Structure formats: C-alpha cells, structure tokens
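Treating backbone geometry as a discrete language has practical consequences that deserve illustration. The sequence in question and its structure tokens are set out directly beneath this paragraph.
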Amino acid sequence: MAIQLTTPISEAAAEALQVGDTVEISGYILCGRDAVLPKVLKMIEDGTAGELGVDLRGQVIFHTAVSPAGVGPTSSNKLEIESSISPLSAAGIKLHLGKGALHQETIEALDKYNAVYAVIPPVTALLEAKTTERKVLAFPELGMEALHLIKVDKYPAIIGAAHGRSIYD
C-alpha cells in the first residue's frame, strides 16, 4: 500500500520514509530541471527566493520540464540538477523526484537535511509493459535504432496534431 503524502511535507513525514517505500504525492509541487535550477539556487543565495511566492520548506521538486504533452522525469544525475539537490534540501525541499542513480555525496546530503529522493519510472517502463512482441525487420546492425515491428496492448498516447491544429500552438 502506498504512503499518502500531501505537500507541504512535514519533517516527521520525511523522517519516516524509507528506501523502497511506495508513495503517492498530492498537492502542489515544483517542476524544474537543468536550465532553471541554477537560477533558483541564485535566488536562494541572494535571499530573493521569497519572490517565487512559494515557501520552499516542505516542498517537492520534480526534475522535469512541463509541456502540453505532459511531464516525465529527466535524469537527476545531470550536473546542474544533482548539484542543486544539497542546497535545495538545505533550503527546505523535502522530496526530489526524478530518475537515475545519485552520487554517494548527494545521498549523504539528503540525509543531512532530512530530505529524500524518489524515482518516477520513465514512461518507457509503462510502454515496455504494454509491448508484447518485438522483431527486427531491417538494419539489425543499428541495434536499438534498427527498424522494428512491435505488438502493443493499450499504448497510451496524445494526438499532438490533427486537422491543421497542434497542441503546441
């Protein structure tokens, strides 16, 4: 059974979380990745983070970009992202969401500030579970970039363009 978390996350709730716990997060969360996180860190350093209009204490940050097509985790171990985890945790962020392994020093910084990191499986994991057969049709020397034929079961998708219109317009 998943642990229900609502933002802002309390110190006690963060303290109770353990590796392997399944959580379901509700409430408002921040979203940012390599382009914006250094700017947020600069605001923290300058003492202007209050201008964001959100108290960072107890907050969740999802390492993602937000597009009309949806959100999906980016690699949290990119330099600009991983280097933000310790200072953001010091500023009160309690939960960092992303994907990928973190360096040991980052894991220790999370512990120091009673913060945690949660992995959101990439969409590819969902789609892989819905792929029932696969076969290389041509150009096998290209490996994963070869021409494949796959059989799928209930693949989710969003139509991005039709009838002269685009969701990105």
Observations:
- The chain has a mean pLDDT of 89.
